[in-house]
Amino acid sequence: MIDIKDKKQCCGCGACEQRCPKRCISLKTDEQGFLYPYVDQEACVNCHVCEQVCPVLDSAEKKKPVMTYAAMNPDDGIRLKSSSGGVFTALAEYVVKNSGVVFGARFNESWEVVHDYTETIEGIAAFRGSKYVQSVIGDYYVKAEQFLEQGRMVLFSGTPCQIAGLKHYLKKEYERLLTVEVACHGVPSPLIWKEYLSENTEKGAVKELSFREKSNGWKNYNFYICQDHVCHKELFKDNMFMKGFLNDLYLRPACYHCHFKAGRSGADVLLADFWGAGAVRPELDDDKGLSLMFLYSQKGKLILQNLLLEFSEVDYKDVVKYNPAVIKSANPYFNRLFWKSHKEKGLASIEYVLSKKRFLLFKKFHNLWRKAWRKLWN
Ligand SMILES: Cc1cc2nc3c(=O)[nH]c(=O)nc-3n(C[C@H](O)[C@H](O)[C@H](O)COP(=O)(O)OP(=O)(O)OC[C@H]3O[C@@H](n4cnc5c(N)ncnc54)[C@H](O)[C@@H]3O)c2cc1C
Ligand code: SF4
Ligand code: SF4
Ligand code: SF4
Fold first, then answer.
1. pLDDT tens-digit map of 240-249
2. Nearest-10 crossing angle of helices 140-149, 160-170
């Protein structure tokens, strides 16, 4: 049975919990706010099913995409509401128009991030845009399987580990399943998100929230929040929660040793920001958002022909070097220090650890400079 001794070895996908025939696994929150499986040993019959569906225990080899494209939604309104080029919405609309079901991550009433599904075009809006918190998957692998067994088309979107979790849960290929992963820097702690909201907002007052508001452009995006119709935006690099996230302070332990990057999740399509567009394809970059679309299967390729998208082929090697999150895990260097200081300082530990990081970088630079100076004079 599943027994998590090393937290790096669990991405929290929930496949074990949803597949256990005795329903004796429950996901519980740890002291960092992440969910992990716990087994009721009295009820467990030692069937090993949970281990068989765990994507970490059975991770795949890296693979390269069959095709790589720069892509954008031709509707500028959709593109501006999306994090990158609005490709997710084009894929989701295609599936809904074909009587399919779309699964994705949305905010709930408390601004926590949860998975859900929709069968309507209007319902897709809630999934649009990146939410930088680990989403709770609930029992949505079970629901996706039910729709697939009814012969419905299903688009399941999420982080690469959530896609790997679904594939392992299903243990069977479905012609009508399209899996779409987002390039994943890592998922921040839901506990830190909760603390951030409680220190910076009035309870029940948040009406609108976006991690990637684009009124300053796609590359200089804002963190945007409206409380009782008073709205406030802050450049992403000035927002405390985003600074801690982008500096890898409080990601899930598994994110520092990710098993699902570089084509290892089994997803059909990967969507990412085309951060290198200015260097690789400047003519496509109008700063409203541009996606990279990596197609890992023929299914993804077939669907592309039916989408309302503007796209153009790019070279995988050229684009991946501007987007390391597609292939490389985050750096764990300051994670331990963050949690140590969080016990005492709470959210103030974000600034504390970042100042330490700046000091260490300065010291490193200073030592290099001194070495070069001495060499010059000896
Ligand atoms: C936690 C996280 C980290 C990311 N890190 C990077 C990165 O390092 N580099 C990069 O190029 N791109 C990253 N992305 C992806 C990128 O921000 C865009 O989501 C992606 O390019 C798709 O953009 P879009 O405009 O086509 O669609 P959008 O409408 O912007 O994307 C919506 C899609 O994101 C999914 N989604 C949103 N939040 C979550 C969540 N918390 N968990 C699971 N799925 C979610 C929705 O289900 C939907 O499929 C990250 C996304 C997330 C959620
Ligand atoms: S061994 Fe079987 S019964 Fe026990 S927790 Fe795992 S799946 Fe459930
Ligand atoms: S990675 Fe997923 S399947 Fe494996 S133990 Fe964690 S929650 Fe369960
Ligand atoms: S970095 Fe890897 S383990 Fe972490 S959420 Fe993303 S896919 Fe999952």
1. 999 999 999 9
2. 50
Q: How far is the CA of 246 from the centre of ligand 4 (A)?
A: 14
Probe residue for ligand 1, chosen from 130, 211, 290 as the CB with the greatest number of ligand atoms within 8 Å:
130
| Amino acid identity for residue 106 in this structure | R
* Sign for the pseudo-dihedral over CA of 272, 273, 275, 278: positive
Exposure string over 144-181, b if 16+ CB within 10 A, otherwise e: bbebbeeebbbbbbbbbbbbbbbbbbbeeebebbbbbb
Q: How many domains does the chain have?
A: 3
Structural tokens at position 234: 């802050």
* Residue matched to tokens 């696994």: 25
Query: Residue 124 corresponds to which amino acid?
Result: I
132 lines ligand 1 (CB under 6 A): yes
Report yes or no: 7 and 254 within 8 Å, Cβ to Cβ.
Answer: yes
Q: Is residue 335 part of a domain?
A: no
60 found inside a domain: no
Do 281 and 144 have their domain in common? Answer: yes
Residue 363 has pLDDT above 70, yes or no: no
> What is the domain extent for residue 119?
67-326
Q: DSSP code of 331?
A: P
pTM of the model: 0.95
Q: Six-digit token pair at 316?
A: 């995988």
